[in-house]
Amino acid sequence: MPFTKILSDLVDEVDGSLGAIFLDDECEYVQYFGHIDSFRHKLLGAYQGILFGQVKKRIDHLSKVAPLKIVSEYENAQFITIQLKSGYFLVLAMDRQANIGKAMKEIERVAEIINREII
Predict the structure, then answer these.
(1) Prediction pTM value
(2) Which among 70, 77, 100, 103 has most CB atoms closer than 10 A?
(3) How many distinct structural domains can be found in the chain?
(4) Which CATH number do you get for residue 79?
């Protein structure tokens, strides 16, 4: 399944979503979709990846129990970052009015789909 379609479905499913980005363990984007300038989108994704990596190092033993998810805010936007297998991760960027509960449910659903696609 093409990752662009998966990401666009995630963005469409959560009102207030600005974009979604799928990154590798070095914070390089694999694929993205959204309503943000592509350079800014990749930069925000990389920042979330760096934050995610630092938090993960400190609580690595907990991330073995369940996928690690981090919710953060920056420049009037909210982000949910979720761990995928093989060092990959997914970031959903949203405006401040987005429904975090629905976003958490949807990003977990999409993470399962992407994890099935990762070799």
Answers:
(1) 0.81
(2) 103
(3) 1
(4) 3.30.450.30
In order, the DSSP letters of 87-110 are G-EEEEEEETTS-HHHHHHHHHHH
Q: How far apart are CA 118 and CA 83, in angstroms?
A: 13
- Following DSSP, what letter does each residue of 9-64 receive, concatenated? HHHHHSTTEEEEEEE-TTS-EEEEEESS-HHHHHHHHHHHHHHHHHHHHHTHHHHT
pLDDT confidence bin for 1, thresholds 50/70/90: low
Note whether 23 and 29 are within 8 A (CB). Answer: yes
Structural domain including 22 reads 3-117
Amino acid, res. 48: Q
Q: Which residues pair with 81 in a beta bridge?
A: 70, 91
Interatomic CA distance for residues 13 and 62, integer angstroms = 29
**Among 87, 88, 98, CA closest to 34:** 98
